[in-house]
Amino acid sequence: MGPSTRGGPMSLTTTRIPGFRGRLIAANDDDYDRARAVWNGSVDRRPGLIGRCSDTNDVATAVRFARAHELEIAVRGGGHNVSGTAMCDDGIVIDLAPMRDVWVDPAKRIAYVQGGALWCDVDQATQTYGLATTGGIVSHTGVGGLSLGGGIGWLMRKHGLTVDNLVAAEVVTAGGEIIRASATDHPDLFWALRGGGGNFGIVTSFRFALHPVGPTVLAGPVFWAAEDTTDVLRFYRDFLTDVPDELGNIVRLGTIPPLPAISPELHFRTAIAVASCYAGPVRYGERLVRALREFGTPLVDLVAPTSYVDHQASIDDTVPHGWHYYWKATDLTALSDEVIGIVAEHAYRATSPRSYVAMFHLGGAVGRAPSDATAYNGRDVDHNIVIDAAWLPEQDETVAATETAWAREFLDALQGHRAGVYVNFLDSDDNASRVHDAYGDNTYDRLADIKATYDPENVFHHNKNIQPVHARPAPGLEPLRP
Q1: Residues 444, 168, 134, CA angle at the centre, nearest 5°?
Q2: CATH of residue 56
Q3: Tens digits of per-residue pLDDT, 388-401?
């Protein structure tokens, strides 16, 4: 049974799912519009039913119900993916949002995280014990989506990607079975989950390895005027040549956000920023970033000792829920003079003061992992870049067209310097070839084979979809019987 093309919301003859203990929300409920809203306000989809799950059994029950009624299935964790795959038209949304609990075993340095948790939930729970794992740079991002795509963040150079810290996962399959994936249980599925996205099942809980971090870290951005961009990026490239793994860096180009710590006269001024987080003793970090802070004539320097939890949430307000977003992204072959010139030329052409460009420094532990250790495929990349167009929901279509055109033109200008792409940065109009680019031939073929084992009928296709190559049941699993 493949994706159904029949019916719509009215094809659901009931709003009751036998055995489902969570809350079901239909189009006539007062909070339906709130329940179908996701982070990207430009996404406007109308599911027939939203099932807010209370536990893993609810997830499995909802999957079996959807299969029996030939309903489209979308899966919502944090709802933060820019392409809005957490929602579908018609069908059912299996919503994990109520499942946000986090348990920490400080002795074993393990966190047990439910599939609907946000990174703020994880950071707050683990930092109680001075521990952390690599998470997203926006704390209202969902754990599930970020983790399954790879997981880049401040700690990745020291402690690896989020997927490198995944120890085990509880998964609901396309047949509504509940199984465990780990290095010893369904190891093929475990490999695929670590970078292959939501193609293979619904992860209802994660088990992550933790590391000593903080609770105080040296972190924050330094801003320079936009006209200094070329000089700053060339200095930055040289600065990175011998930095230790403890130092994470992200470059941001756009306007200075109106943060409380920044003087109002600098708000929305075009600027380049280099933000850092040193995951080690503050005194060592201060010596390390001194050269960066003293380069040129900074407009503002916000580098300071801060709690790791606060740093993780420091840019939350610059990318709030409900704005309209459109992304284009690529891995970069090198941070060459030519690439620097293209970035400096295009970064400030956006007309919306909320649009920006982010460039992530990888390497370190990310690059030392074997290329086939996980399904994440960008191990040999030093930098990737995401071009984030953003505008307010009340702005007209002219603004939307202008900002999306800026993002596309910027990506096109980088054509000769593009490698792969981070799958979590792909937007809704990135086609199947770009999904393939996120993995490369060998990894994609391996993922397609595993997809055929665990989801041969492509039930889970509201994602950056990987097509199954052929159908066979997973070992120990029976195919769904109608």
Answers
A1: 80
A2: 3.30.43.10
A3: 999 999 998 999 99
